[in-house]
Write a structure and sequence with these properties.
- There is one protein chain.
- This protein is 42% helix and 18% strand.
- It starts with a helix and ends with a helix.
- It contains 18 helices and 18 strands.
- It has helices at residues 2-17, 21-34, 39-51, 55-72, 75-88, 93-107, 125-129, 162-167, 197-204, 232-241, 296-300, 322-331, 333-354, 356-359, 366-371, 429-432, 453-462, 464-492, and strands spanning 188-189, 195-196, 243-247, 252-254, 262-268, 271-276, 282-288, 293-294, 308-311, 315-321, 374-378, 382-385, 393-399, 402-407, 413-419, 424-425, 438-442, 446-452.
- The longest helix is centred in the last third of the chain and has 29 residues, at 464-492.
- It folds into three domains: 36-129, Serine Threonine Protein Phosphatase 5, Tetratricopeptide repeat, CATH 1.25.40; 162-197 and 358-492, Jelly Rolls (Sandwich); 217-336, Jelly Rolls (Sandwich).
């Protein structure tokens, strides 16, 4: 049999050099029959099957590969294979649950795993590979929206008026002109750890939530799910720094557009979070009750409030300022981790439910597509994409703000817009055949998404509505950018 396997591998190399996928499929199928536990050949076979449109067969082989890797303890390889399944069908709930289960297991530091629920077993079955199923103990990410509504994120390109700029606080870490010298700060390169968004979802959902014991009473800090597992010393410090505030029905905690960086913790009563769209409509994002945190986005982003919060009943809250929280988590880093979890989950819900780019994808597939993004936390003044640089996929803004800049005829870069949550950029060459000559820089701290190039290509091929949306955005962005630069030249000229 060894001679036959060597012969088949030679034939496979010849088929790959000659770019003959049908022959490669035939040879790989024979190799998998002779060596049923050769997962690398099986995964390669699945790749050829998917490229030739034989998706059901590809899915079957990928499930077997994922199960094999998982049960051997190679969780990273299993995760990559399941991501291939999600790329084939972002609406595949079985694959999505399997992916989150694998992430959750890896997050707990366990290298071994049993079969993935709902997946086909690899050749040899349980007798060869083991019998303990992989644990899937993650939470589904619930929607934060009551009912359906139109996309509520701002347009992807928003010229800012002088009056709005005057209201914007000048953060010391923004890449603006230095007030002392008038020179522009040096932009930082894009660095830092880029993580799978799916892994962040799983790790953020690992700690089960619980409701306060008495929904109608006033919970203490220990009864707030966010702080249910932190040390008593940390709770004492939070209680010392927290300011208790009361609101009557109809009163406002904060308005959309406000620059205030406070975390609110609801002790008693209920409130409603609403966002006004650029078309003037009000969209209800959430209704929150005792124990819920609110406002954690402003703790991690240097950006104005994207929604307003109004009391529905008599409301009693704790208010914690960002400066106080930063001092607290210097001593208790877990507080920051818990808040960052809430921040990411809330942004993820908004991304899936409201980002305009997601509206161009079938609803059943949006959560799966979100799982394919990568995310990183980026400091202010970071050059995300240069005017002539390769995008390496499609970028998006999960949280914070990104400045859009264009070079004028005089050779200087000018800020022409600010993008916020849900906006996308880069990858225009695939939809309109050219680059826009824009560069993108973080304005304050931000969470930046990236859809890898291979996934981006596949989604464009499989979802014409997505390609049409991105084409409209690119054409509009090119037109507006040139109009703004021309108007600035005329004004200053």
């Amino acid at each position: 049999m060894a001679d036959e396997i060597r012969k088949l591998r030679g034939e496979l190399r010849d088929a790959e050099r000659a770019e003959e996928p049908d022959k490669a499929i035939t040879v790989l199928a024979q190799l998998c029959e002779l060596e049923p536990n050769d997962l690398r050949s099986r995964q390669k076979l699945a790749g050829y099957l998917s490229r030739t449109g034989q998706l059901a067969e590809a899915q079957s082989h990928l499930q077997q590969c994922a199960n094999g890797y998982a049960m051997e303890g190679f969780l990273n390889k299993a995760i990559q294979v399941v991501k291939e399944l999600v790329q084939l069908n972002p609406a595949d709930e079985v694959a999505l649950r399997g992916l989150q289960g694998l992430y959750a297991r890896r997050h707990r530091g366990r290298s071994s795993a049993g079969p993935i629920p709902g997946f086909q077993l690899p050749p040899g079955g349980r007798e060869l590979w083991g019998s303990d199923p992989i644990e899937v103990d993650f939470e589904d990410v619930p929607t934060a929206v009551d009912g359906e509504g139109e996309p509520s994120f701002p347009p992807t390109l928003i010229p800012r008026s002088a009056s709005s700029r005057e209201k914007t606080p000048s953060y010391p870490d923004e890449p603006d002109a230095d007030p002392g010298t008038g020179s522009r700060r040096t932009l930082q390169p894009l660095t830092g750890t880029e993580r799978d968004l799916g892994e962040l979802i799983a790790s953020a959902s690992a700690e089960a939530r619980r409701e306060p014991a008495d929904q109608f009473g006033q919970p203490g800090l220990r009864d707030i799910p966010l702080f249910s597992r932190v040390p008593d010393e940390a709770l004492d410090l939070i209680a010392q720094r927290a300011e208790e505030k009361d609101f009557e029905p109809g009163e406002t905690l904060f308005h959309q557009g406000d620059w205030e960086s406070n975390l609110w913790l609801i002790l008693h009563g209920r409130l409603e979070v609403k966002r006004r769209t650029t078309a003037g409509h009000e969209l209800t994002l959430a209704r929150l009750g005792p124990g819920a945190p609110l406002g954690e986005m402003s703790i991690f982003n240097d950006s104005p409030r994207t929604a307003s919060a109004h009391a529905l009943t008599h409301l009693k809250c704790y208010r914690l300022r960002r400066s106080d929280l930063q001092e607290i988590w210097q001593e208790f880093p877990k507080i920051r981790d818990l808040l960052l979890r809430e921040y990411r989950l809330r942004h993820l819900r908004n991304l899936v439910d409201h980002a305009p780019v997601m509206q161009a994808i079938p609803k059943a597939m949006r959560r799966g597509v979100a799982m394919l993004f990568k995310v990183r936390e980026v400091p202010a003044g970071t050059l995300l994409l240069d005017a002539g640089g390769e995008a390496g996929g499609l970028f998006g803004v999960l949280g914070g703000r990104v400045r859009v800049e264009m070079r004028s005829e005089a050779g200087d870069y000018r800020m022409i817009a600010v993008m916020s949550q849900g906006a996308v950029f880069g990858g225009e060459e695939l939809v309109i055949g050219e680059r826009l000559g824009l560069r993108y820089v973080t304005a304050g701290r931000a969470s930046v998404l990236r859809l890898p190039a291979d996934v981006y290509h596949r989604l464009l091929d499989e979802h014409p509505s997505l390609k049409a949306y991105l084409e409209r955005v690119a054409i509009q962005r090119r037109r507006l950018a040139q109009e703004i630069i021309t108007a600035q030249d005329l004004f200053h000229g």
